[in-house]
Amino acid sequence: MAVKVSVNNVNLKFRLYRDKGLSLKQYFIEKVKFNREKSKTYEDFYALKNINLNFSEGERVGIIGHNGAGKSTLLKSIARIYVPQEGQIQLSGRVVPLLELGAGFNPEFTGRENIYLNGAMLGVNRDEMSKKEKSIIDFSELEEFIDLPVKNFSSGMYARLAFTVATSIQPEILILDEIFAGGDASFLEKAKKRMNELIEEAKIVFVVSHQLEIIKSICNRVIVLDHGEVSFDGPVNKAIDYYESKIFKK
User: Could you tell me the CATH number of the domain that includes residue 38?
Assistant: First the structure.
């Protein structure tokens, strides 16, 4: 079966609540005001609006835009972390999202236990993770610490284990939100090589990065988002020129 991703008429909105942390006096004032004016204590905004996109094998897609443009939200929607209120996202192929590495770790569990926990969250069964366990521990260089609770890990150790677990699973659809930047120089060199191998072998790759040179080096298609909408979709150089002239200067 061909690997593909289709984003059809997707709208995703978040609700922002106002008046957080009111004092008791402010609360009653606002309550009286609400009863009199029926004013809202929240507002809705569209993080993604009317998104229609199709992706097929061989595409390396960069997603760029200003802060808050919806870049990470789109990736999380493709990864099925967010579910849109309207429209649908259809995909075929194993997805590995390298987003917020280690977010699924339980701080009370050991490093070894978190290998299996994170694998399960990525859709990999225990038997398959058991075959990967030794190589994960070796690559992360955490042999001495792997049976300690991860709450005792340094931030660098935590990042190394999270990166290694996530990249031990060969994706058909690879989702990257900024490139890994944790660890010492020798580990970074290994991580860079491993990331390049994943990108090379994946059928479809999505990349969000504020570093346009990274986008240029990886991607063959770029989407520019502006306030949750697709503003441009096309070749890399044209997209970056558009972004720098129309969006970046806003």
Answer: 3.40.50.300
What is the total count of domains within the chain?
1
What are the average pLDDT values for consecutive 10-residue runs of the chain, which has 250 residues?
A: 93 78 58 55 86 97 94 94 94 87 86 94 90 96 96 91 90 85 76 90 93 93 96 96 80
Closest Cα to residue 198, out of 230, 172, 163? 172
**Residue-range definition of the domain harbouring residue 50:** 4-247
* Distance in angstroms (rounded) separating the CA atoms of residues 105 and 38: 43
Q: What is the DSSP letter of 42?
A: E
Return d(Cα 153, Cα 145) in angstroms, integer.
8
The region, left, alpha or beta by phi > 0 then psi within -120 to 50, assigned to residue 183 is left
Q: Residue 241 forms beta bridges with which residues?
A: none
Is the pTM here over 0.85, yes or no?
A: no
